[in-house]
Amino acid sequence: MYWTMNTLPLPQYVELGVHSLSGLLWTLLLLFLWHCYRIGSDLTLPGHAHAGKLKSNSRRSMISRSVSCIKTKGSARSKQSRSDQIGPFISMDRVKEDEQGTGYLTPVLSHSLFPAQATAEAKKLYKALQEYAKRYSWVGMGRIHKGLREQVKQNDLPAIQKPHLFFLPDVPSVPFFPRDAHRHDIELLEASYPVILAEFQAVYQRGIDSKTGWTCVGPKGQAVFPLYNAGVYMTGNCRSCPCTYRTLLSLRTFINSNSLGSAGFWLLGPGASLASSYGPTNTRLRCHLGLQTPPLCELVVGGEPQCWSEGHCLLVDDSFLHTISHKGPPESGPRVILSVDLWHPNVAAAERQALDYMFSPDL
Q1: Which UniProt keywords apply (predicted)?
Q2: Would you tell me how many other CB atoms lie within 10 Å of the CB of residue 149?
């Protein structure tokens, strides 16, 4: 048997529901048309304002006019003060710093150089920094700017830390750094200690003479066998010490691209001492790997004494006032270390790149 919808008895409220639904749809349609009509009536033609909005527009115009009058009166008074506040940051000619000395970014935005008392070396470095910024960017150069402008002040102040060439401000520093500052490089140098010592002994047995690659030959056994001298690769000496040379290239923070970095064997004979001095910059740390360390050898940095140990490294900030002495007996032999210049851990990568350019051996 087949059933159809017509045969089913439907209650009457279902039919009422269908009619009410159609009525609701017609109501919504009428509301939508009325809404569209209201929107269309609110859109006035140019030059014809709607009567209902005329009063509100006039009120708004009156308020805006009064506000503009107030602003016009106050603009003349605040114009000078606003220009004084914004001027140092947008002017290309103004180079005055504030009394606190915090406007060290001003040289970035100006064409002016340093005061008249600036040294020729500082002006040369600033010119190199400008050339670097033209090629690359000024981003990250704030501390270098500040250091160059305040170099004159640093030279006049008595201090326990006073590098004579370049001081990078806002760099935390201590006379001796912990191993964690350059753990990878220190562990690599200490692991290579036997090979490095053997290569030094082979070079030392050939005799200390300028013809065999030694420099700074002085009294009481003072001598240096450089592998890198002020960023310059010493070809003959590196060929005499190939394993040491490869170890240097494996270091992550070795300064081998500018004149601030050097590496080599340093000798100091018994009874010799080096007078108090400052290093050239605080952007580097000098790593000393002890090769031969007789007793009574001492290094004093910033008033803190330390002794070398064979096969172990010392991280020294030589921008502090430092002295070196060897007070051992003549039979104790020379004190020998491998000295390697590493980047200071608080010098950013962008600053390292800029310093490489500024202190390039080719400039």
Answers
A1: Dioxygenase, Membrane, Oxidoreductase, Transmembrane, Transmembrane helix
A2: 23
